[in-house]
């Protein structure tokens, strides 16, 4: 038995509770891990509250990422005592995840803890920070350079946005954030944003083409926000899209793409190949100012995760939400 959050669905309904979990709940895997930290991401909030059908197998332990020590291994790649990081691969959705004291996973899903980070720092980055790095890499891959103009980051006060702004500003880009929370403006600027725009400029229906403003953009919102970002890109600008907190729809036209040569690059961190995962973690070690992690993350205990999940969905959480599994 081990402690964790368990989501169950039966004739009595959908519910998440902190409880003692039998090891039989864990699925097959060749590595068993004693989890030290996990995080709360938007997808975890949806899973815990049941606001969206994220969980596709019951009972389920939520938590789409984790860091911890290997307890048992049938893999030649990992030995007991090794510290490993997990993000994605459907963990917390179809395979029991990180919001529990123990996890059993496939070794192919794991990466060794980068030497530049402590376990706590690795999860202060977590899935959101990893995704942010993938977005920056996508902009670079499509030729966006720091001297070409401003880069826009939506959801600037959230996990992906906070880390993206920190990385971009550290690389010399002039970053403009977008947020719907005026109280977070100073925080967003402290991460490196040159200015912060109100979300209201982007989240309503707009024109097929707007004034050219951005050389690059990272969007976590989708819907009208993504459409308006695309409409206001400079000629041959690039948008890295990785989220849908504003909705899955994309009410846009082809005008930005065929008249300005705008590129819309989709970024997925769940099934990302291992080679790119390792590259992203190497880049995080090099390009993220680790001192900013203290600003970016808040820490809670596992016992607080269910309550905080609702606040996360309500947009009341700043940056990254680190979960200490031991308390």
Automatic annotation (TrEMBL):
<dbReference type="InterPro" id="IPR013154">
    <property type="entry name" value="ADH-like_N"/>
</dbReference>
<dbReference type="InterPro" id="IPR013149">
    <property type="entry name" value="ADH-like_C"/>
</dbReference>
<dbReference type="InterPro" id="IPR036291">
    <property type="entry name" value="NAD(P)-bd_dom_sf"/>
</dbReference>
<dbReference type="GO" id="GO:0043957">
    <property type="term" value="F:acryloyl-CoA reductase (NADPH) activity"/>
</dbReference>
<dbReference type="InterPro" id="IPR011032">
    <property type="entry name" value="GroES-like_sf"/>
</dbReference>
<dbReference type="Pfam" id="PF08240">
    <property type="entry name" value="ADH_N"/>
</dbReference>
<feature type="domain" description="Enoyl reductase (ER)">
    <location>
        <begin position="13"/>
        <end position="323"/>
    </location>
</feature>
<dbReference type="InterPro" id="IPR020843">
    <property type="entry name" value="ER"/>
</dbReference>
<protein>
    <submittedName>
        <fullName>Oxidoreductase</fullName>
    </submittedName>
</protein>
<dbReference type="InterPro" id="IPR051397">
    <property type="entry name" value="Zn-ADH-like_protein"/>
</dbReference>
<dbReference type="Pfam" id="PF00107">
    <property type="entry name" value="ADH_zinc_N"/>
</dbReference>
<dbReference type="InterPro" id="IPR014188">
    <property type="entry name" value="Acrylyl-CoA_reductase_AcuI"/>
</dbReference>
